Amino acid sequence: MDIGVHLNLTDRQPLTKRLSNALNTDGGQFPGKFSIAKAVLSRQIPVDLIRAEWRAQIEHCLARNLQLSFLNSHEHIHMLPPLYPIALALATEYGIEHVRFATPEWPRTWSASAWLRDGIMSVLSQINRLHMPHAAPIFLGMGESGRLSQRYLSNLLPKLGPGRVYELMCHPGIADLDEVQDKRLLAYHDWEMERQTLTDPTLKTALANNNIRLIGYRHLQTTQEGLHIRPEEILT
Predict the structure, then answer these.
(1) CA-to-CA distance for 129 and 117, rounded, in angstroms?
(2) Which of 115, 152, 213, 221 is most exposed, with the fewest beta carbons within 10 Å of its own?
């Protein structure tokens, strides 16, 4: 199983005291995504503090002997243009080969918040594409974030192109109300449904019918020319 760091700037408490002090919030907790984005873009929060905080988060995981193969972030905050190069630099520093490149997936039904999110992500991805050191998997699932369904996958899988590498964002799990009490998270995520979607036997059949192979980040090799499956994986 691949293990990565879900970089955070928008929920709960920073690991570093300097960032906690700089946030000027109740208890030094992270503000919401729009507040932290405004603080970064206005330079109210120096990016050096963000770099130090994310380094602490990565080292917190490494101290537990976790082998890291990717970085992404809570609410895609690393896609903010001043922060995306920092995520790339930290990945290089720690030998982490893959950084998620999140892109929009325009929702099929009207939702003001979803259209706002995808509009913002469209702009951010266009800006950040200038800094991409190499190709990244094509991102899927933004439009179904938190509620990945069998219907979505049955419509999606036949449309995937041959010879391409995709990343499907998903949040399968078991809802533990003793651990998660944030009403916003509970309203947004249906972890149980996503787990059922991804473990349903019909998904395995659909993958086979569409000649889709499941791989992990550990199976991917990045080069200037693009993404390749590692030779040893092709033989297995």
Answers:
(1) 18
(2) 213
